[in-house]
């Protein structure tokens, strides 16, 4: 009797899962959430309150710094998460070669994160390089230099790619 094994294609992670793994989205969101009330308080006091000028300036500067930095980090990371999600869903699949698996300076819950550097060819034969960004050691240590994996890239902008894991 012959046995047929059907391997289901790996499902792309949800936007929520991608967002939940993003330090910069969380960090930026917290700073933005802290800075916005400071800035709003300064504006309210400047136009409607009777607070002295020093308080308005201090709250305004704190709000602008925290809110500005936090907003920049939050919205930039949100755009990158949407890009990764789009590439997972509809990007062109290509085989990639692992060039290097290395440790990063990022830690998450006390665990030093790792990164995979990879190379792939688009459908025209042009060679591109990519990085996974910080990933858990358990995922990264499944690969060694020279092994094959898969990526998905944007056919219109092939330098944009997302690592999807082991080759089938």
Q: What does this 3D model show about the protein?
A:
The relative contact order is 0.14. The two termini are 24 Å apart. The chain has helices at residues 15-20, 23-47, 53-90, 137-140; strands at residues 92-108, 111-121, 127-131, 148-153, 161-166. The chain has a five-stranded antiparallel sheet. It is built from four helices and five strands; from the N terminus they run H-H-H-E-E-E-H-E-E. It has two domains: 15-87; 91-166, OB fold (Dihydrolipoamide Acetyltransferase, E2P), CATH 2.40.50. Strand 2 (111-121) and strand 3 form a beta hairpin. It is elongated and about 65 Å long.
SSE arrangement:
Blueprint: H1 15-20, H2 23-47, H3 53-90, E1 92-108, E2 111-121, E3 127-131, H4 137-140, E4 148-153, E5 161-166
Antiparallel strand pairs: 1-2, 1-4, 2-3, 4-5
Give the CATH level 1 class of the largest domain: Mainly Beta
H-E order: HHHEEEHEE
Structural class: alpha+beta
Round the mean pLDDT to the nearest integer and report it: 86
What is the correct CATH architecture of the largest domain? Answer: Beta Barrel
Tally of alpha and pi helices = 4
Spell out the key features of this protein.
168 residues; alpha+beta; OB fold (Dihydrolipoamide Acetyltransferase, E2P); 2 domains; 5-stranded antiparallel beta sheet; 43% helix; 27% strand; disordered N terminus
């Amino acid at each position: 009797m012959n046995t047929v094994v059907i391997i289901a294609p790996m499902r792309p992670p949800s936007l929520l899962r991608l967002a939940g793994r993003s330090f910069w989205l969380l960090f930026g969101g917290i700073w933005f959430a802290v800075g916005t009330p400071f800035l709003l308080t300064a504006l309210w006091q400047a136009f409607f309150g009777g607070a002295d000028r020093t308080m308005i300036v201090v709250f305004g500067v704190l709000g602008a710094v925290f809110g500005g930095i936090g907003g920049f980090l939050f919205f930039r990371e949100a755009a990158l998460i949407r890009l990764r999600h789009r590439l997972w869903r509809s990007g062109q699949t290509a085989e990639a070669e692992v060039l290097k698996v290395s440790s990063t300076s990022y830690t998450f819950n006390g665990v030093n994160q790792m990164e995979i550097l990879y190379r792939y060819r688009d459908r025209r034969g042009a060679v591109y390089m990519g990085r996974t960004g910080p990933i858990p050691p358990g995922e990264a240590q499944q690969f060694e230099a020279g092994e094959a994996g898969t990526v998905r890239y944007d056919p219109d902008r092939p330098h944009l790619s997302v690592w999807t894991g082991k080759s089938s």
